[in-house]
Every structure is written in C-alpha cells, then in structure tokens.
Amino acid sequence: MLKNSIGWILGILICFSSLIEQTYATCSISAVANSDLTSDTTINDGDNQVITCTQYTHLASTDRTATFTITCSSGSSSGVQTCTSAADCSEPSQTGYTFNPGSTFETQTRSGSCATGYSGSASTITCEASGSWTSSTGCTIVSCGTPSGSTGYVISSGNSNYGDTRTVNCADGYGDSPTDLTCQSSGDWTGLTGCSGNLNVT
Question: Rounded to whole angstroms, how far apart are CA atoms 176 and 44?
C-alpha cells in the first residue's frame, strides 16, 4: 500500500513539474523592422505571433505577402522573416495618357484617362516588382484627316494627327501672309487665313 502511494505521489509531482515547465516556457522575439512589431516581445510556449509588414513593405520572399507567423515551441521560436520595402515605380508617364494621383509602390494601381488630343478609354496600370508600371491601353491619337483646300492656298503634304502642322503658301496672285495649319484636339484643322484676293485680277 505504501509503495503504491509513493508511486502515486511521484506521478503527481512529475505531472506538476511538467505543467510548471509548460507554463513558464517562453520565447523572446526581437522587433522586426518595417512591421507592426516595433519592440521586443515575449510569447508563451505553444503560442503564435502574427506579424504584419507595414504599408508598402512585404516579405523578402518571392510571394510578396505582407504577414507571417512566429511560433514558440519548447522555448524556441520559428517562422521569423524579414519585411523589405516594396518597389517604387515613381510617377507614371506615358504618351497619350494622364493618370490620377496615388501611390507609386509595388502592387498599387492607378486609373487614368486619355490626354488632350487622344480619344478612347484608358486601362488601369499596376506597379510591378521590377519597379516599372504596366502599360495603359485604349487611347488613340486624334486624326484630323486630309485638310480641305481653298482657292488661293497651297497646302503641303504631311501627317494629320493631333499637333501636326501643314505648311501653307499662297497661290500665285494671292496675298502672301498665310498661317500654317495645325491639327487640333477636336479633330479639326485651324482655319486658312492670309491669302486674300486674286492680285492678278485687274
């Protein structure tokens, strides 16, 4: 009987000792730069600590996620990772497009519209891990077509898109102060002026 009691008591003491060890086993975790864990902390054995990288930062690993979990087991921590700054694409610039204000960091998007002299609907662009924006599509340059002639004017050949100009000369016998034509954002050419009257008419 005594021997059984002693064995029973020893079993209780061993279990109690184990509980004490489990209760007081902890892991010290150092602050992680660029995360919400800004100071050192301690977690208990068996607990987890979720760490979130701050805005415009992500894990150094290739998955580009923003959170990771540190686990404490038997007094040792695992799962510690590093938060690194996201790529910065700078302000976007693309001929024919204007973009709304916003973030320039990786994974962020910008909506936009067609610039003056362009028509259509601009697609959204995204800042990539390479530090470059994707290209927007959907905007085409305005065309004014071939300019219509008028008596007394000689119009040079050339391009007919927004911002293009055509040299204008006066025909023989007409005033000699013409204004060149310019293709406008409306799709119209500026007017013909400067060549007035047939000077050969008497």
Answer: 93
Res. 81: pLDDT tops 70: yes
Residue partners of 137: CB distance under 8 A and separation at least 6: 122, 123
* Cα(12)–Cα(18) distance, integer angstroms: 10
200 neighbors 172 (Cβ within 8 angstroms): yes
Q: Where are the domains of the chain?
A: 26-85, 97-141, 143-188
* pLDDT tens-digit readout, 131-178: 999 999 999 999 999 999 899 999 999 999 999 999 999 999 897 789
- Model pTM score: 0.66
3-state secondary structure (DSSP) of residue 18: helix
String of DSSP letters for 99-137: E-S---BTT-EE-EEEPTTEEE-PPPEEB-TTS-BPPP-
Is 110 within 8 Å of 179 (Cβ atoms)? no
Query: Quick one: which of 181, 179, 158 has its CA closest to 170?
Result: 179
End-to-end CA distance of the chain: 147
Alpha carbon 33 to chain centroid, angstroms: 23
